[in-house]
């Protein structure tokens, strides 16, 4: 998602444009990796010395709620990234070393449906974790 679309969504949802929100969204727009609140805080403390995790988490939660960011949990910590702009259904491979993300276009749900006859599945999330080729050759 680009930042223009993100601001449209925030405005439609009744949220105002602030310098802090703008900096958070800029950081996400400039990377295709997942970021943590800690990643954001390290950068934002320079411009906002009183910035707290609470402020960052409130904004991140808002962005997830309105569909701007996606979140996942890696190594016991919440990680966030801009919502994918592609409309087709897909999943992600996430490198646990560098954070690189690659789209995976196969969905394993057909196999799951076969094993759950009579069940209604509302939604699902499927992520694959490991090392990308660059990180495998670097070690």
Automatic annotation (TrEMBL):
One of its GO terms (molecular function) is DNA-binding transcription factor activity. Binds 1 Mn(2+) or Fe(2+) ion per subunit. InterPro entries: FUR, Fur_C, WH-like_DNA-bd_sf, WH_DNA-bd_sf. The keyword Transcription regulation applies. GO terms for biological process: negative regulation of DNA-templated transcription; regulation of secondary metabolite biosynthetic process. It comes from the Bacteria. Fe cation binds at residues 89, 110, 124. This is Transcriptional repressor. It comes from Kurthia sibirica.
């Amino acid at each position: 998602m680009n930042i223009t679309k993100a601001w449209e969504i925030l405005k439609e949802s009744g949220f105002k444009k602030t310098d802090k929100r703008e900096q958070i969204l800029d950081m996400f727009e400039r990377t295709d990796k997942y970021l943590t609140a800690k990643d954001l805080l390290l950068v934002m403390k320079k411009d906002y010395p009183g910035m707290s995790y609470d402020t960052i988490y409130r904004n991140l939660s808002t962005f997830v709620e309105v569909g701007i960011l996606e979140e996942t949990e890696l190594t016991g910590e919440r990680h966030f990234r801009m919502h994918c702009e592609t409309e087709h259904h897909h999943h992600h491979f996430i490198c646990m070393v560098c954070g690189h993300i690659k789209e995976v276009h196969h969905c394993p749900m057909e196999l799951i449906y076969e094993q759950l006859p009579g069940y209604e599945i509302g939604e699902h999330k499927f992520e694959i974790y490991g090392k990308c080729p660059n990180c495998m050759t670097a070690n």
